[in-house]
Every structure is written in C-alpha cells, then in structure tokens.
Amino acid sequence: MSRFAELLDDFFFRPDEDVSGLQDFAAGSDGVASAAPEEVPEEYLSFRLEGEAYAVPIRAVREISKVPPLTEIPRAEPHLLGVMNLRGELLPAYDIKVRLGLAERAPLVAGPDAPVPPRDARILVLRTETGPAGVWVDTVSGVVKLKPSMLEPPPPGLRRGDKDCVVGIGRRGPSLYILLDPEQALAP
Amino acid sequence: MSPPSKALAEFVAEATEILEALGKDLLVLDERRGHEADPDRVNGIFRAAHSLKGLAGLFGQERISRLAHGTEDLLDRLRLGKLHLNDAVLDTLIEALDAFQALLAETARGTETDGLTRRADGMAERLGRLGEVSVALDEDPLERLELDAQVRSVFTEYEEHRLRENVRKGVSMWRVRAAFDLSDFDMGLADLNTRLKPLGEVISTLPSAQPGGAHGIAFDLIFGTQVSMPELESGLKGTPAELARLAVRPATTRSAEALARATESPAIVLGTLGVASAPEASTGTSPPTKRGVRAAVEGGTHQPLLPLASERSDTEQGETGASAHGVPGLDSESDEEHAPSAKGPSLVTYLQGPGGRAPALAATPPGASQAGAGAASSSSASAEPSLRSLTQTVRVDIGKLDGLINMVGELLLIKASLQRLAESARQDGVVPLSKLFGQELARETRGLERKLEALQEGLLEARMVPVGQVFDKLARLVRRITREAGKEIDFVIGGGEVELDKLIVEELSDPLMHLIRNAIDHGVESPDTRLAAGKPRRAVVSLRAEQKGNHVVIQVSDDGAGIDELRVREVALTRGLITHAQAEEMGRRELLNLIFLPGFSTARSVSELSGRGVGLDVVKNNLGNLSGIIDVWSERGKGTAFHLTLPVTLAIIRALVVGVSARTYAVPLNSVLEILSVQPREIRTMERREVLDVRGQTLPFVRLARLFGLPERPVSRYFVVVVGLAQERLGIAVDELHGQQDIVTKPLGGRLQSVRGISGATDLGNRRPVLVLDVAALLEEGLALERRRA
C-alpha cells in the first residue's frame, strides 16, 4: 500500500520540482516507452556553498532554519562555528567549507564581532549518529529527485584530503550536484 | 529496543517502589540477624510480595508474578510460624530481591533473556523447597487459652498463629474491651491502638458480643503484653477500655508440660528482667524438632537451653556454642542479650561469608544448596547491575501539587490584568500613556515576578528526593560485597534525609557504589591484619550526607589502611603520569590527588570487585557532570575519606552574569565565594604565574579572556570572581559584571561533550545562547596550570 502511495506520489507536481525531464519526455516519441524496470528516485536537498551546488539525502535533514544568533565556544575545534538555540534546543553549528576546500578558514559568524548573516544563509539541521548538528549553507536551492542512474562516482579531481565526504555526483538535466555524506562532512 | 508503553512504565514505577520497601524491610531483618524477627515486619514483607504478585499478574509479567508467588508463599509460611527465619532463608530472600530487580530491569528495557528466566524460575523453586520440615506440636497451646470457641473461630490463620506464639512464650493475654460512640468510633479505636502498640501486640480486633449502648459499638481487642496490670492501666488511662485477663490453663500431658516449661521459662526470666522482647524467647517459635522435644523431656535444669541448641542445630557453630556455654538459662540469655558481637555464634556465620554459611545451607536439601551456590556464583559473575532507578518518576505530595496549581491560578489572574492593560493601551492609541498606567503595569509585573519565583521554588522542591533512597540500595550491596571480599564490616549510614535533586541522586548511585567498593576491597584490611595492627576486628565503612549551604557534601570513609602516597608516587612515575621533577615538587595532598588521573590503580592484583579498569577518573568525571567535585583525605593506618561536594539542584540555578571581551558568560552563584575589584597593578607574579594577595593569602588567578583565547582588551580594573568548591579556590578575572539571574542550564551534550570549561548554555531572553562556566573544571584547570608552571 505504502509502495503504491509512493508510486502515486511521483505524479504530483510540486512547485519546486524539476520538470525538465517531463518536457524531454513530451518532446520525444510517445510510442517507445522504456521497458526497463522503473527506478525509485531518491530525494536530495540541494544547497549552495560559495556558488557550488551540493546535495545531501533529504532523510538526513531534520529541518532548515534561518541563522539564529550564534555563540562561539571557546577553545573548540575550528570548524565549530558556535552553538545556537533552536526552540529551546541547544545545537552546534558547523562550517564545512574548509573541509570542502572552498575557504581557507571558517567565516566569522558568531561572537560580538560577527556581521549580520546574509539574508539567504540557512542552517541545515542534520541528523547524525551523535545527535543533531547544524551546518551553515549560503542558500537552500530546493529538493531534487535523483534516480540511481543519475548518480556517478566522484571524479578523481574532486577527492580532497583524507576524510572524503564527497560520495558522488548527481546529474539531472543540465544541473550537477555534488553529493555529500553528512556524517563524513561533520567528522572532527 | 522499543520504548516501553505508558502502562508498562507505570508498572515498572510501582514495582520499583514495592521492591524498595521490600528491600528496606529485608535490610532491617538482615541487620538484626540472630534476634527474633519483628512479626509486623515479616507481615509487611509478605504483603509487599503479595502486592507485587498481583501487580505483575495484572500487567502480564509472568516471570515476576511466578517469582513473587514463590516469595509470597515462603513469607506466608514464615509469618504463620511454619518456617523459622534462619540465615539460609534470609539469604534466599535477599537473593530473590536481586532477581526481582534484574527481572524488572529487563522489563523496563522491553527484553527477556532465557538466562534470567531460568534463574528466576530456579529461585522460585528453591523458595518453595526451603524449610519443608514442619513438625506438628504435641498439643496446640491455643487450647490452653480460655477463649470462647465462637471467638476463636473468627480468627484468621495469622492471628491464630500470633496468639499461639504469645501463649507459648508465656506472654499474658488480655481482652481489652472498649465501647465507643458510633459517630467517632474509628478515631477512638485508632487512639486505643496507638496506646497499646508500644506496650505489646494487638493480635486481633473483634466486634464485641456485648452491645455498646444505644448509639455505640464495642470492640474486643485481644492483646498480648509483658507489662504488668498497673502499667497497662496507666497506659490506657482516658480511654473507655476495660481490661480482662485471659486465663491460660497449664499444659496437660507430661511432655507438653515440660515443653511449656522449657519454652516459657526464658520468657519469664526475661519478663522479670524487664526486657520487652527477648531474642531467645524465639526458641519457641521454631517448631522444636523431635530431638528438641525429647531433650526437653529428659533434661533437668538446663531445659531452656536445649531447645535453643536444637534451634541452632542448623548452624554447627550454634550447637557447639550453646553446649559450650553449658550454663543456666539466665547467663546464656544475658550473654546473648548484650554482647551479640563478642562471640555470638550466629554472627560468625554471618561474617565468614559463603564458606561459613555452608553448614547453614546443609539444613536444606542438598540439591537446593547446590542450586543456591550455583545461583550465587552466576549472579556474582554477571556484571554488577547499576543502582540507578528504572523509572524517572518522582513521588510528589499532593499538597505540594495543590500549591503549584494555586500559583498557576494566580498567574492566570495576573495575565488577565496585563491583558486588560494592553487592551486599554491599544484603545488609547497615540494618547501618551498616563503615569497611573505605568504604575499599574509595574505593579502587575512585580506580582508576576513574585508568583513566578514561588512557582519555580515549588517545582524545584517537588524534584527533591532524600539521598537515603540511594543509601538504602547501597547498604544492600555492601552486604554482598563484604561477603565476597571476606571482610568484616560495619556499614554506617548518616544523613539519609538530606534532599537533593532527583537527577543528581540518580547520577550519584554509580560513583558512590564505586567508592564503596574501593573502600571495602582496597581500603579495609582483612580481619587478621586488622587485629595484628591493633585495630578492632570489624572495620567501619561509613556513608554520610550533610547539607552545607547550597551544597551537599557526601562522605565515603573507611578506617582501613589508608592510601600509601609513596606507592601512589611510584605508580604515577612508572606509568609516566608525572615526571620525576614534578614528583619532587608535589606535596602529600597533591600526590594523593594523582589517584584521580585516568589509568591509575594501585591495586597490585586485579580483583573481581573493583579492578575492572574503571577507575576513580570515571567517578571524578561523573561528578564533574553534576557540577560536583571530589576530594580525598587519607592517613596511613587510619583510613581514607572521599568528600563529594554537590550542588543541591541542577534544574534552575542562580547565576552571576559576567562579561569578558564583549562576550557574556554565566557563573553558577552557588560556587561564587566573593567578588573583588582588582587594579592590574595588584596582580603579582610568583614564579611566572599570576596570583592575587587577598587578605594575606595567595589566591591562584586566571584571566578568563586569556584562558579562553579571546582578544584581551585593556581595562582599568578587573572584577575577580572568586570561586570555590571544597577547599579549592580560584580567582577568575572578568571585564564586567552584569548582575544575577535565574537560569536553566541546558547541557551541551551530543557532539560537544569534549568542550572544556563549559557546562552548558542558557538563554537570558534574547535568543542568543549564553555559555555557563563549569566551575569545577575551571578550578581544576587553573590549579593544574599552576602546578605545571611550578
């Protein structure tokens, strides 16, 4: 039953849905429907960091929050931006730009000298094995559905450092998404 | 592992309470080993087991229900006198309690393991087999009591048993008849009962056959007492009680006569000595074996002694002890009476542990004793269960809850007034607000503040539980550890009534258990070593709690060998925990404190008890999580004491809000001793570390900004917050003081547990988390810093 609902779910249009595939389908011949077994797409949340498009499995995302006031933790590891108060819950917020080689050092976003956070910046609250953790992203782009056939292994050039958090590339139409393993991205 | 359902959680909560009560009663019986058990207590334990059985049945907990049934059955036979409470029985009951706790722990987790099921069923079977021997008496002493057959027929089995016991012991029986008015007879009866209780035993309360007047009701209380008639009369002065002595016929047959004499005489002796309940009068409670009866018949003047021997024949020492006395009854009685610890045979059995108790077990069928030994070894081999409660429930007095509800009601009233004010302000629109309006608003705000404070206080109070809850559990554990370790120990508990937050009490159980294990295993010497050192054979391990202001100090101490600081130094050096140079600098106190370092243990052999790789560093960490600290005192040959200093509550604390480099931090006020204003030039350096001179004393001192690596700003003067826990003092320099505030601390938890110097964060009303300083950790860091520099 639930599988049936899942299948049906694919027919619903969502405003944020990428429908380019549908147009491709409409343009092509309607006579040659593929006989290949249907693939179950997985949903990813895509976001941008320094202009690059990244995505994490949506199961790993608990919620998306605007950037609340952050408090820096003295003597903490450098990628810990600070702690935030999310409806009474105390959550750590991390930077992953340094890990991904997008920045030299974590941005100053907590403490008395921090500037007002950019309007589009968000904190993704991710579920991790050691509890929820926030991750700073520059903007949230939306949800993308990626079928297994759209996934590629990470190109060798993307591998960086010993802790590799890039698990693959998602290709959907003209867009590319760098797929991240949240657990690895947040590892100390 | 699915979370247990609500119904199951309730079951666990209630069963835990029952087991706690049961454990307490058993402990009392255990402490009074060798004395006659208080029938009320045995009855109480019986009722607890019965409730547990019913409760378990109701929730479909068959394993617990089966075991409870076995326990109830055994206790029923005990309270009816069909079974004598000896060491073997008591040990089995205590083991059964452990089994209950293990079962309940599994239930709470929602699991069920075969091993435990087998253990529980084996235990239930053993309970059923225990002491099957029951010897019928030649003549029921009850027959000798002149009582209406009609009255007798209404007695329950238990009442009949108590009556029989009293008659056999030669206690004089009274019928206390009292008539009360129908309107308040319950109060009158309760009053009568409370007056009678201290004088003797109320065996039964029956409605009297005599009418109690037109608007009255009369009762006959069957009462057994050792006190004299005038004493009884004066005790009952002011009540409508009429006394009538129930005559006891002398025994008829020759053997029964001898028996009666044998059993009655000690009681009479004691009666004249004015002792209310004679421990050895219990001789009669054990159904005399054939040998005992024969001995009583054949015996001459030593008659009272011989049943005593027969009763003790379940312990070999008992027999030899009693026959070795070979003195008239009076001497042996008084001997037993005031010097149970001197050479009492039963005590030796208690202390020698499983080996010493083997003869006691021999009284039960051999199969049972084997099963017992098996169960004991398997239970000791399994990991020590945590003493934490299985439930998160707190019992709250309904009066307190009512008070809280009332406060909420008043808060709602204030809310209504504020709403009205807001409404009027909105309607007035741009018209400037009047002064009156401002005053009214201020008044309501003050009221709100007061009520909120009261509500907070009330809620905190509801969270408080006496530390005795944990102490009782530990006492039970001590008994077992002592036995396993082969030591002789008196365990002294004090201050169990001191209250702490439920959360802290729960978290305390494991560290305390560890410290007590250490004291028994490493601290206390073996009895022979003690004697050789000129100390009393029995060691004292004590556990005391005491409230000191906003803190509770718990002390775990022993009078054992103490800690050898030179050996501590040697170990620390060989393990590379300190360098030779550091060791040279260290005083005795600092050397002692090395035992809290991770990976330290002075025990030469890893024992089953405490050498499990979990050291005092874990204890220290656990306490640190509770914002507490631990301190050790020890003197070689005299003993060791650990002092645990803990805050009374963690839920809401008053904090000092301070500012450093434009950051805000909160310092729990309960550890702030004073605040000093210090000019930079007053800071002095001693051997390259900064100190302050406060009233002639040197105070170690850290600048928070420097410690936390924050950009330091030049200031004209520092505020130095002097924090202290136990004897440690540290000055923490900050830039600004922002005042005091009540805060609710949220732990950093999860991913941030390794952060040093911060215990959590709070919210001061602007959504920005404010970090709360971990004073205990900072103290340690500040002082360690000092040591390293030294």
Helix coverage percent of residues of chain B? Answer: 40-55%
Tell me what the CATH architecture of the largest domain in chain B is.
2-Layer Sandwich
Number of helices of chain B: 28
CA radius of gyration of chain B: 33 Å
Mean pLDDT of chain A: 82
Task: Write down the Rg of chain A.
Answer: 19 Å
Element string of chain A (H = helix, E = strand): HHEEEEEEEEEEEH
Q: What multimeric state do the chains show?
A: heterodimer
CATH topology of chain A: OB fold (Dihydrolipoamide Acetyltransferase, E2P)
Strand tally of chain A: 11
Strand content of chain B: 15-25%
Largest sheet of chain A: 6 strands, mixed
Taken from the alpha-carbon principal axes, the silhouette of chain B is globular
CATH domain class of the largest domain in chain B = Alpha Beta
- Helix tally of chain A equals 3
Structural class of chain B: alpha+beta
How far is the N terminus from the C terminus of chain B? Answer: 52 Å
Notes on the protein architecture:
The complex is a heterodimer of chains A (188) and B (790). With 188 residues, chain A is mainly β. Chain A has one domain: OB fold (Dihydrolipoamide Acetyltransferase, E2P), CATH 2.40.50. Chain A has 3 helices and 11 strands; from the N terminus they run H-H-E-E-E-E-E-E-E-E-E-E-E-H. In chain A, the strands form 2 sheets. In chain A, strands 8-1-2-11-10-9 form a 6-stranded mixed β-sheet. Chain A has a 5-stranded mixed β-sheet with strand order 3-6-7-5-4, with no helix packed on it. Chain B is of the alpha+beta class. Chain B folds into 6 domains: 6-129, Four Helix Bundle (Hemerythrin (Met), subunit A) (Up-down Bundle); 141-246, 2-Layer Sandwich (Alpha-Beta Plaits), CATH 3.30.70; 254-363, no CATH class; 398-462; 467-563 and 602-647, Histidine kinase-like ATPase, C-terminal domain (Heat Shock Protein 90, 2-Layer Sandwich), CATH 3.30.565; 652-789, Beta Barrel (OB fold (Dihydrolipoamide Acetyltransferase, E2P)), CATH 2.40.50.180. In chain B, helix 3 packs parallel to helix 5, helix 5 (114-129) packs antiparallel against helix 17 and helix 10 crosses helix 11 (290-298). Chain B is globular and about 100 Å long. The model of chain B is unreliable at 133-138, 253-383 and 604-613 (pLDDT under 50). Classes of the chains: A mainly beta (188), B alpha+beta (790). The interface between A and B is medium-sized, with 26 and 27 residues.
